[in-house]
Design brief:
The chain is α+β, with helices and mostly antiparallel strands. The chain has 3 domains: 103 residues, no CATH class; 118 residues, Jelly Rolls (Sandwich); 76 residues, Phage tail protein beta-alpha-beta fold (3-Layer(bab) Sandwich), CATH 3.55.50.30. 31% of the residues lie in helices and 34% in strands. Helix 1 crosses helix 3, helix 2 crosses helix 3 and helix 4 packs antiparallel against helix 5.
Length: 318
């Protein structure tokens, strides 16, 4: 098994952010060399640097749009708590950056996780035991794969897991409960304080209340909330279709569809209550959400209102 890389703590992450801000614009040779030296000092430094760069790419206009970025650096050095720093950033940001920062994101989770995806990103990886793991948009996962333990910790978002058959059961851990299987294909999603499980093949056991469990077979969907397991009707959007870059709908509410698309794009995407109960069916590609949204007025009596590029509302056609 490949050794797990040293995970950067918050202090190292702040140092990486400080270097990123220092190298903005046209840095001198000395600063570039000093940053390179810092990155080479420890594996956790390089890991923090790479993850800060990834987060910066997701922000797009994020830190680059801050007129007071030097002040942000000073606040980071002063050791402000994360939420205080984000409030300061929101006050200093403009346009798209303000919208991004207002969302319920957890940058520290992404920077310290074993696997993480940004908004709109999907990622697949073969695990050490032969299982196949796919992360959907804005997801965070930790792994613990050893000779005697197979554990996936879903900290945020949604995954599709194809568990390779092994004598040792594979466990999925989340804040809402544990799942266990020896060989199954399933989708697990954290949303609004609940864990939703859709079993696509095989069987998955939901462990709850500290005793026993409940077996969920292929084609069934359950929700785990506060230790209770509740059967759900078949979903109106095909579970796991996102792994192929698709949203597949069958008579779904427009409001629910727009909320799903919003997971894959930065900024704010909303649906007016006046049109939220309209229904639609179809197959939609996720790789270009602008093009996807442009299809809606072609089949429904709606229009798109752009307040900014990153603030869009689907509303009744005038």
């Amino acid at each position: 098994m490949t050794p797990r890389p040293a995970q950067p703590d918050e202090q190292v992450v702040r140092q990486a952010i400080a270097w990123m801000l220092r190298l903005r614009g046209q840095p001198d040779t000395g600063a570039l060399q000093a940053c390179e030296h810092w990155r080479n000092q420890h594996a956790s430094h390089e890991l923090a640097w790479q993850r800060v760069q990834q987060l910066d790419q997701e922000l797009g206009v994020g830190l680059r749009a801050l007129p007071q970025s030097r002040q942000v650096l000073e606040d980071a050095r002063a050791g402000l708590r994360r939420r205080q720093a984000l409030k300061l950033l929101s006050g200093a940001a403009v346009g798209g950056a303000a919208l991004w920062l207002s969302r319920d994101l957890t940058p520290w989770e992404r920077l310290t996780a074993d696997l993480a995806t940004a908004t709109g990103e999907r990622h697949g990886q073969r695990l050490a035991d032969g299982s196949r793991l796919l992360l959907n948009t804005d997801s965070v996962v930790d792994l613990r794969m050893t000779a005697g333990q197979r554990q996936v910790h879903l900290r945020r978002g949604e995954i599709l897991l194809e568990a390779a058959p092994q004598a040792e059961a594979l466990h999925l851990r989340s804040a809402q409960g544990w799942l266990r299987t020896r060989a199954a294909r399933f989708v697990a999603r954290l949303d609004a304080g609940a864990l939703r499980l859709c079993v696509l093949g095989g069987e998955v056991e939901v462990l709850h209340s500290g005793t026993g469990g409940r077996t969920v077979g292929a084609g069934r969907t359950v929700e785990v909330r506060a230790g209770e397991v509740r059967e759900l009707p078949p979903p109106a959007m095909e579970p796991g279709a996102w792994a192929d870059g698709l949203i597949v709908t069958r008579d779904v509410r427009l409001g629910d569809f727009v909320a799903e698309v919003a997971r894959y794009r930065p900024g704010r995407l909303a649906c007016s209550e006046a049109v939220a109960d309209l229904r639609l069916s179809g197959v939609y590609r996720l790789d270009d959400t602008e093009r996807l949204l442009a299809l809606l007025p072609q089949t429904l009596p709606v229009q798109l209102r752009y307040r900014t590029r990153w603030w869009v509302t689907v509303e009744a056609r005038a």
